[in-house]
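Team,

Forwarding the record for the chain on the shared tracking sheet. I've put the sequence and predicted structure together so nobody has to dig through attachments.
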Amino acid sequence: MCNGRGVSLECIRNSGVGGGGRNGRQQASTNRAESVGCSSGPTGGTYILTDPGTGAVRRTGRTNDLDRRRNEHGRDAVTRELDFQVDRRTDSYSAQRGREQRIYDYHPETDLTHRRPISPNNPNRDSYLRDGDQL
């Protein structure tokens, strides 16, 4: 279901490059993305970090390189045990900003997201949200 606009919740375990992760999910999801033609698709997008035991969302975020960011979280003592889930894939900065705000709003319980993605005073806020809603 890769249409260039987004791939929903592609679960990738936070373990180093080449690691299979818990139950091999990282390798399986990577293969799934490649099998549907996404290997040359967007590298950036939005993501969530969830507690593998409870499923609770602990953090939301955006990046221009999801693989790099997954590996960074995998090396961080605070986030290494959390599941990294791709929310949407896009290389559009504006769409990333808007989508990050939407998932942040949807998951107010996050305890590791320390600041609001888009300030209410940001003059581009409406444009970002509109672009994010297109994903």
